[in-house]
Design a protein that fits this description.
Number of domains: 2
Structural class: alpha/beta
Strand order of the largest sheet: 3-2-1-4-5-6-17
Radius of gyration: 20 Å
Largest sheet: 7 strands, parallel
CATH class of the largest domain: Alpha Beta
CATH superfamily of the largest domain: Dihydrodipicolinate Reductase, domain 2
Number of strands: 18
Strand content: 25-35%
Number of helices: 13
CATH architecture of the largest domain: 2-Layer Sandwich
Length: 374
């Protein structure tokens, strides 16, 4: 049985560990004992406390494993992947860090390591779907909408963070890059907001975010864009906070101390955005792919609506991102991923068997992408 170490035991990391423990020998590692205590009832999952920002501690926890799963906040992701590669260990990572993963490609190949990155929902599953269709048709347009939201709307934010709040704020400040008519376009975050209808929720607001990431390098498609979904009205109040400087990373002097406004904002927002016991979330993803197949115009649309699992008390974000990750980990474990170096999800989707495996794996766990063809 393969030995897997899961770095991070937050909401998503916990779901990943529980799912993988059905088939593998799993150790879950986190700096917070409070996170690990939530895994105590799963006797077959080992837990370990470690500061994963410390290189020596990280290397110690992964030294005897066969595969590493990265479920850390984005700001820790790149370094964790780099150190794992240096240790000669394969990794499947969902941290969606902002650095360019291909900076590590040569190193990974030199170490004979496979590093599958962005293995979550969006980016992640959207890439898998695009990879599949890009291999079988001439794609002219790719659009991906994605968002995780609380089912119950509560003033003032109508939002709950089901992953690192700092990573959420990155979506509000990191410039968005997309492809328009074969040109790379860069717009500020929260730009070009639009309202769309998403069954069964209704109207949701979408804006440009920097979610294409590896697709900007791996795909030669004339039009590609990724947008984040929130309840209508979100852009307006988030822009107010941003213009006030609340998301600034530049230090300011407050009562004789140097502080970063974004750290204060994160500290204030976390308790407000935290999903409380009994609160339910849902995930909405829509992927639209247009192009020509066998000389005919085609449009494929994939819709996902997934809700909090009351039976297992698992958030929808943990299900949709976490189970995509565990599907890919299983795919790797059975030897279906041969590529060495940096391997984004679109590479996996290009193989029809891998594409079908991931969709089937998710569907078995109730995460069902419904496809329509036009």
């Amino acid at each position: 049985m393969k030995r897997i170490v899961v770095l991070g035991a937050g909401l998503v990391g916990k779901a990943i560990a529980i799912d993988l423990a059905k088939s593998f020998n799993v150790t879950s590692v986190d700096i917070y004992t409070s996170n690990l205590e939530k895994l105590q009832k799963y006797k077959h999952i080992k837990t370990q406390v470690a500061d994963l920002s410390d290189k020596d501690e990280l290397l110690d926890v992964i030294k005897d494993c066969d595969l590493v799963i990265g479920a850390l906040p984005g700001f820790m992701g790149f370094e964790a992947v780099k150190q794992t590669i240096l240790a000669g260990k394969d990794i499947v990572d969902i941290s969606s860090f902002r650095e360019d993963p291909f900076e590590l490609d040569e190193l990974a190949k030199e170490k004979n390591v496979t590093a599958i990155i962005d293995a979550g929902a969006a980016p992640g599953m959207g890439n898998v779907i695009l990879g599949y269709y890009n291999a079988k048709m001439e794609v002219s347009s790719y659009k991906c909408y994605g968002g995780g939201l609380p089912y119950k709307r509560e003033w003032p934010f109508e939002y709950k963070a089901v992953f690192s709040p700092l990573d959420v704020l990155e979506e509000y400040i990191r410039p968005a890059k997309y492809i328009l008519n074969n040109d790379l376009v860069e717009r500020e975050a929260l730009s070009e907001a639009e309202i769309g209808y998403f069954e069964p929720i209704g109207s949701l607001e979408a804006w440009n975010t920097d979610g294409l990431k590896t697709l900007l390098k791996t795909m030669k498609i004339p039009n590609m864009i990724e947008k984040t979904l929130r309840y209508p009205g979100t852009v307006k109040y988030i822009k107010v906070l941003r213009e006030m400087g609340m998301f600034s990373k530049n230090q300011i002097l407050v009562s004789g101390m140097q502080v970063r406004p974004i750290d204060v904002t994160t500290k204030l927002l976390f308790p407000v955005w935290e999903l409380k016991k009994g609160e339910e979330d849902y995930t909405m993803i829509r992927v639209i792919i247009k192009g020509k197949e066998n000389g005919k115009d085609k449009r494929y649309t994939y819709n996902l609506y997934d809700r909090f699992d009351r039976e297992t008390n698992t958030t929808s974000m943990a299900r949709t991102a976490g189970y995509t990750c565990t599907a890919i980990a299983n795919l790797f474990a059975i030897g279906n991923v041969k590529q060495k170096g940096i391997c984004p999800p679109e590479y996996l989707g290009a193989d029809p068997k891998s594409f079908e495996f991931i969709l089937k794996y998710l569907a078995e766990r109730g995460v069902e992408y419904k496809m329509t063809e036009e």
